[in-house]
Amino acid sequence: MKKLFCATAFTLFALAALAQSPQPLSFNSGHSHNDYKQNIPLLRAYYAGMGSIEADVFLKDGQLFVAHELKEIKPGATLLKQYLEPLYQLYKENGNHPYANHQLRLQLVIDIKEDYQHVLPQLLKELKPFQDMVNKPVNPDAVSIVISGDVPAPENFKNYPALISFDGRPAKVYTEEQLKRVAMISDDIKNYTVWNGKGTPTKIDEDKLLKVIHAAHQQNKPFRFWATQDSPNTWLELEKFGVDWINTDAPEKLRDFYLRKDKLTYTNPVPYPVYQPTYQADGAVKKVKNVILLIGDGMGLAQIHAGWIANHGNLNITMIRNSGFSQTAASNSGNTDSAAGGSAIAMGEKTNNRYIGMGTDDKKRTNLADTLAGYGLKSGIISVGDITDATPAVFYAHQLDRSYNEAIAKDFLDSHVDILVGSNQKSFLQNPDADLIKKLEAKGYTLNKSIADFKQKSSGKQLVLLPDSATRPVKDGRGDMLAQSLKQTIKLLSANKKGFFIMTEGAQIDYGGHVNDLKYVVTELHDFDKTVAEALRFADQDGETLVLVTADHETGGLTLLDASAADGRVQGEFSTNDHTNIMVPIYAYGPHSGDFTGTYPNNEIFKKIMKLFTGK
C-alpha cells in the first residue's frame, strides 16, 4: 500500500511539474473548429493565422460537401471550392508555403461524418491535383492533411497513402508503426470534467486533464481538447495544462489575444517596500491645514489590484483604511473624459466632456486652487505628463476644449497656483503670446527646466517646465520624478502658515490603459503608489494633513484573468481602449478621512474639501 501511495504521489507530482512549464503557445496554435460555419470559411481562420483548420465532410453525388449534418448541405459548398482551391492559390502566392510567414504551420483537419470507406478514396482523388501542397512526407513545407471523425481502424492506416495522417484518441492503443500515422491526439473535454471554462477545474478533474495530456506527450504527440469554452480564461488554463492546440470558434479573437499576450502579462520579481502609516491622526475630527490630492488618471479598482498583486500583495494605497467610491459620469455623457472628470473635482459641479474649468453654460468657474487661495492657502499642481493636459489644466485654466494647449498655458497667468510641474515646454516657451514667460516672471515665478533645478529652490513661486523626455514612461527609464516633485513642493509650501493644497497626477496609468498595455499600467501605478507613500509619510509627520487618493475615471475596462501575488505576476484583458463609466475608489487618510467614505458623484469631492476649510 505504501509503495502504491508513493507511486501515485510521484505521478501527480510529475504531472503538476509538467503543467507548470508547458510550451508557450501562439495564435498559430489555434484550431478553427467547425470552420465551415464561419461566414467566410477558410479565409477568416487563415488570415487569423490558425495552425489547424477543420472542415466536416459528407460524400454526396460524387462530391465532398462541408456541413455538420446532411440536411445542412448547400449547393456549391464543397471541400474543393471552399478549401482546397483557395488554399492552393494562397500556397502558391506564398512561394510554396502555407503562410507568407514561413515559420507558421498549417494542417487541414477533415472530419469525416460518416462512411470513411467511400469518403477517403474520393478525398484522395480530390487531393491529387494539389500533391505539391499536401504531400507532407515529401515536402516538409506542405499543408498536413489530418483525418478525423469516422476513421479507419488503426490496423488499416497502412492501407492509405502517407500524405494523410489521422487524429488519434486517448483510449486507442497504437503500435509503434500505427503511431507514426497519428498527427495528434484529441478528445472531448467533457469526458474529464464538467468545468465550463470559468475559474479553474477541481483538483481531481485537473489531475485527469493533466494525465491524458501527459500520456499523449509521452507518445510525442500534440494534444487537443474539443468542446471547450471560447474565452481568454479557458485558453490560459488549457495552456497551463499543456495542450498543444487551442480549440476555437473565434479565430480572430484568439489571434488578437495571443498577439497582445506580452502586453497583457506583467511580472514584477522584486517587490518594493511600502510605508507603514502610524494612523495617529487618521479619522480624527480636528483641523485640516493641508490637503494633498493624488489623482491616478485612468485608475480603477482593477488597476489598483493589478498593482497590489504585482507588488507581491502590498501597496501604499491599500494601507489606507478609509475609502469610498466616486461616480464619474460627465453632465453630457455617462462616460467622462479627463477634462469633465477633473473639472468636476476642481470646481464642484459636473460639466461637459472636453471642458476645462467651464460650466455647461460655457462660463468660467472658480477652481479649487483659486478658491482656497482666498483662504490663504498656497497650491501646487504636479503631473508626470503634459502639464497642459486635461487633469492638471482644470486646476488653473478655463477653456471650452482640452486641446487648446497654448490657450491653457496662457491661462496660467491668471491663476493663483504657486507651483506648476510637468512637461510640454513648447506650449509655454513658444506660445503665441511671445512675452508669456516674461509676464509670468513679472508675477514672481521662477522658470525651472529640470527637477534638479527645482530642488535647488528654497522659496518662491515655481514654474517647472520639463522636456518631454523627463516624463517618458517609467518602463522606459523615467525614474521617480513624480515623488521627487511632490516632496519638493511640500517642502516649499509647508512654509505657509495657513496651509496648502497640492494636486499630484499619475497621468500615465491612463496612457497604459489607452494602449491596452498591462506592463505600462502597472509600472505607472507603482510609481504613483510610491508617490502616495511620500504623502502619507508627510501626513504622519504633520498631523494636520489630509491625503486623498482617487481617479478621474477608469481607462481600458481592465479585467484580471490570472495572477500570483507570490510571484508578482498578473495577466489581464482590456475591453476597450477608451474610458469607462465604472465608479472609481477614493481613499482618505488623516484628519476627517471618515468624511470621504460612501458613494457619491465626483463633484462632491470639491464640496467635502471646501467644507473642511469653510465649515459649510
UniProtKB/TrEMBL annotation:
CDD domains to which the protein is assigned, alphabetical: ALP (cd16012), PI-PLCc_GDPD_SF_unchar3 (cd08577)
Active site (catalytic residues): S338
Domain of life where this protein originates: Bacteria
Gene Ontology MF annotations: alkaline phosphatase activity; metal ion binding; phosphoric diester hydrolase activity
Family as reported in the entry's similarity comment: Belongs to the alkaline phosphatase family.
Organism listed in the record: Pedobacter cryoconitis
Binding residues annotated for Mg(2+), in chain numbering: D297, D389, E505
Alphabetical GO biological process terms: lipid metabolic process
Keyword Transmembrane helix: no
InterPro entries recorded: AIM6_PI-PLC-like_dom, Alkaline_phosphatase, Alkaline_phosphatase_core_sf, PLC-like_Pdiesterase_TIM-brl
Cofactor or coenzyme needed: Zn(2+); Mg(2+)
Cofactor note: Binds 2 Zn(2+) ions.
A Pfam family reported for this protein in Swiss-Prot or TrEMBL: Alk_phosphatase
Protein name (database record): Alkaline phosphatase
Parts forming coiled coils: none
Signal peptide feature range: 1-19
Residues binding Zn(2+), per UniProt: D297, T391, D510, H514, D552, H553
Keywords tagged on the record: Magnesium, Metal-binding, Phosphoprotein, Signal, Zinc
